[in-house]
Amino acid sequence: MSKADTPPHLLEKLRTEALSELLNYRRFPLSLYLFTDYDGTLAPFRADPSRAYPLPGADRLLLELNNLENIIVTVITGRKPEEVRKFLASREIPVAGLHGLIYLASDSDKREFLGKADPTLPLEVKKRIRQIAEEYSGVKLENKGELLTLHWTPESFFSPDKTREELEEMLAGAGWEVLQGRQVLEVRPVTWHKGKAVDFLRRRQAGRNSGQEVAAVQQEFPAIYLGDDTTDEDVFQSFTRPGFTVYIKNEDDLETAADYYLEDPSEVRKFLKQIQQAAEQAINFHN
Ligand SMILES: [Mg+2]
User: Fold this and answer.
1) CATH superfamily placement of domain 10-115+192-286
2) At residue 2, does pLDDT exceed 60?
3) CA of 284 to the centre of ligand 1 (A)
4) Which residues place a Cβ less than 5 A from the ion ligand 1?
5) 282: how many CB neighbours lie within 10 A of its CB?
6) Across the chain, where does the E strand assignment appear?
7) Which of 99, 192, 239, 287 is the most buried (most CB within 10 A)?
8) What is the Å distance from ligand 1's center to 264 Cα?
9) Rounded to the nearest whole angstrom, what is the distance from the C-alpha of residue 198 to the centroid of ligand 1?
10) pLDDT tens, position by position, 120-145
11) Cα(159) to centroid of ligand 1, in Å?
12) CA distances from 182 to 28, 39, 145, 228, 278 (A)
């Protein structure tokens, strides 16, 4: 789908049969990989990320889905995975953080690096970002270890465009890029994004199901992806069938490469319920 097209509304357009088809796709029991972003998707967007709690019941539903034998769930976020895990109903929900660079398996604290690159941000850029956070009130630095992120409030005099240009100039040719999202500015390695994490995890699951090495896997594992921000567009653009992608609306904007859209996290919760019903039906059908 090209950027210019407006995607259809998921709850109006998606037939229940389409979900059932996906859940019956070739393999049973495990048949669907459900990926979801956190902020703005499972949790209503908050300028202060420390107060971004999931929509009541949404994370519980996700846990129930992950406990079904035919679904595997992963929350994929720009934040540190440990930080988002704290908000979730259970440690059993796998979380991939830093745009999928670091993966925490169900119930595990062991950090697995999914990206090949070991990202080390140039020192002078780190310094400059710290300086900017101190210069402006209303701008907060989030230190993610491997990545640095600036959050700002609309009331601050901070100019994201100007800062982005400045950092881009400093980073030219260094293998890093500056990404602007919802009241957020972040530098990240050009070699990595959420789309690559999703692709890797789907292939790994397909390999596990078929007993093949990841590198030899041809068939993409069926997946659904939900997200609301710039970093999710990387997934929408690189996503392959079977499955589909869903954009959670930002204000009035529908500029997205996703297959469908949802209005807000409360519609995400409704959709998770639909998946649960379809998945339970598929299990009953096979038993
Ligand atoms: Mg988000």
Assistant:
1) HAD superfamily/HAD-like (3.40.50.1000)
2) no
3) 34
4) 37, 39-40, 228-229
5) 25
6) 32-36, 71-76, 95-97, 102-104, 112-113, 139-143, 148-152, 176-181, 184-189, 223-227, 243-248, 260-262
7) 99
8) 11
9) 15
10) 788 899 999 999 999 998 999 988 87
11) 21
12) 39, 10, 21, 9, 33
| CA of 48 relative to ligand 1 center, distance in Å | 13
8 A C-beta contact, residue 77 and residue 45: no
Domain ranges for the chain = 10-115+192-286, 123-189
How far does residue 218's CA lie from ligand 1's centre (Å)? 30
Backbone dihedral angles phi then psi of residue 66, each to the nearest 5 degrees: -65, -30
**Ligand 1 center to 79 CA (angstroms):** 10
Taking the centre of ligand 1 as the mean of its atom positions, its distance from the CA of residue 70, in whole angstroms, is 26
Asked if the model's pLDDT at residue 154 lies above 50, the reply is yes
Tokens representing residue 264 in the block: 């807000």
Question: Token pair for residue 229?
Answer: 């921000």
Burial class (CB in 10 A: 0-12, 13-18, 19+), 116: exposed
pTM across the whole model: 0.85
For residue range 207-226, list pLDDT tens digits in order.
888 888 877 787 788 999 99
Is residue 260 a contact partner of residue 247, using CB atoms and an 8 Å limit?
Answer: yes
Q: How far is CA 204 from CA 93, 110, 236, 238, 239, in A?
A: 18, 18, 19, 17, 15
